[in-house]
Amino acid sequence: MSPSAAPASLADDLALALRLADAADAESMGRFDRPDLEIGQKADRSHVTAADLAAERAIREIIAADRPDDAIFGEEYGTTSSAARRWIVDPIDGTANYLRGVPAWGTMIALEIDGVVSAGVVSMPAMGRRWWAASGMGAWTLAGGEPRTIAVSGVDRLDEASLSFQSIAQWRDAGHLDALLTLQERVWRDRAYGDVWSYMLLAEGRVDIVGEFDVKEYDIAAAAAIVREAGGRFTSFEGSDSLDTLSALATNGLLHDATLDALHGRTP
């Protein structure tokens, strides 16, 4: 931080994160469902669109102007530097949906301070929805009208729980398809809502368990901040609080230990 700059409060950081989401929404919605959308392919054969790139550039430009000493870790342009404060950005989570004109995609913006994700914003403009949270400030959503607080469900039995597993291929490729099928047999219902929307449904109390694999920090950091502040738990498949393990398991908290036991074949 430059000597003349005053430390930003977490409320200031959250306000900035919401402004970053506004800028990203403008870029992504301006290109959404357009027949002339430019679509490319990365080295890992996943898709990237002109909207992914433009949205992340817009976010980076604002951070560079308003928080020049902060680091940025984005899906499309990587890490710019190392610092105690790091913005973690996925400009469009759900690019496969985006390029097909399916509205279930969103921008994810998180702020990590001294290794702890302290604030997060998820914006899904094609669905007219936004969620945000910061440590000690609660979790919130906006869907027209006034912002309102959100909280996870009070479901405390697996046989009453709703599970979103993201995709069978993820679990199969990670070598845990049998674990998923075991859990699926114990819950009330299962669906694959997909990508960041699953976690937001969890934070609102509409889904109780979400699990997936092959995820980077930018895929889950903002969601983790919101789920945790809404009263849920967010760990890896193994139960670690770290977000860099390439797996994620989120629950309403009440079901977390039972879910881990079921997935790992343990008797409670």
Q: Could you please describe the fold and organization of this structure?
A:
By secondary structure, this protein is α+β, with helices and mostly antiparallel strands. It folds into 2 domains: 10-149, Fructose-1,6-Bisphosphatase, subunit A, domain 1 (Fructose-1,6-Bisphosphatase, Chain A, domain 1, 2-Layer Sandwich), CATH 3.30.540; 158-263, D-Maltodextrin-Binding Protein, domain 2 (3-Layer(aba) Sandwich). It is 34% helix and 26% strand. It is built from 8 helices and 15 strands. The protein has helices at 10-31, 50-66, 95-100, 168-173, 177-186, 195-203, 217-229, 256-263; strands spanning 39-41, 47-49, 71-74, 78-79, 85-93, 106-113, 116-124, 129-134, 139-142, 148-149, 162-164, 189-191, 209-213, 233-235, 247-251. The strands form 3 sheets. The protein has an 8-stranded mixed β-sheet with strand order 4-3-5-6-7-8-9-10, with helices on both faces. The protein has a 5-stranded mixed β-sheet with strand order 12-11-13-15-14, covered by helices on one side. A two-stranded antiparallel ribbon has the order 1-2. The protein is globular. The N and C termini lie far apart (49 Å).
Entry summary:
It contains eight helices and 15 strands. It is an alpha+beta fold and 268 residues long. The protein has an eight-stranded mixed sheet, sandwiched between helices.
